[in-house]
Design goal:
By secondary structure, this protein is an alpha+beta fold. Helix content is about 35%, strand content about 25%. The chain has helices spanning about 5-25, 95-135, 140-180, and strands at about 50-55, 60, 70-75, 80, 85-90, 185, 190-195, 200-205, 210-215, 220-225, 235-240, 245-255, 265-270, 285-290.
Length: about 290
Amino acid sequence: MTAARRAIAFAAAAVVAAACGDDRGARPPPPVAPLVTARPLPPVALAPRWVGVIASAESVDVAPRFDGVLASVAVRPGDVVAAGDVIATLDPRPAREELDAAQAASREARARTRRARIEVDRARHKLQIEENGLAAGTSARATVEDARLSVRAAEAATAEASAAASESDTRVARATARLGETELRAPFAGSIGARYHDPGAAVGPTVPVARVIGGGGLRLRFAVAPDETSRLRPGARVVAVVEGGDEIGAIVEHVSPAIDQPSQLVFVEAALEAGTTVTPGQAAEVRAAGGT
């Protein structure tokens, strides 16, 4: 091969090599499999749960209407009571002293009223004498006018004394009622659910002595958010799981029309279905029956 041919062959080989190198550089990278985006699952709607308690349909804490000291307590938990039975007695001495003072003030007020009426009679008698004297010419007209003013003053004093006597009578009636209220009585027939204090304890309107539970059956009471009341209209069925795992059913009877301001919740009361065996005070987790 001549030198010229060898040069042409080398040049051709170089061009082919260069072309092959360019092809490798321009060749696109192998395709990458696209990322698979997982489709989000629809949210699962859970049935709302509410906190409730088993309570008696009739239940009241018996407390005095005024502060006092317990003289005696006649009941213990479990005792059966009739409406009007004495549950406890407050020390009656302060109320009796109040009544004695009111009666003394009433007697004094009535005595003032009697004296004022006597003064009215005296003033009227004097006026009659002066008017007769004026007619006979023995009394001056000014004296008659003074007598008339005295009558008016006596009548005003009588009215004031009568008002004071009426006020005293009111205090006597109030003190008499207060003395009678030293006996705390059962408001209805039932049983004693709790006894909070013993003789010697200080009690008052906010410090009850005992709890009376009536015989009106048990209720399920719970609280819900305001936007959840639509599924809890009267007649709706709810299910509650009480302490111990027992499941009970109940029918909604009443939904409060107002929101409780401290808790911002709505209170609901439901009647337990027949055959339910629970006791007052048991906590319960409540849900709407058939909820998803």
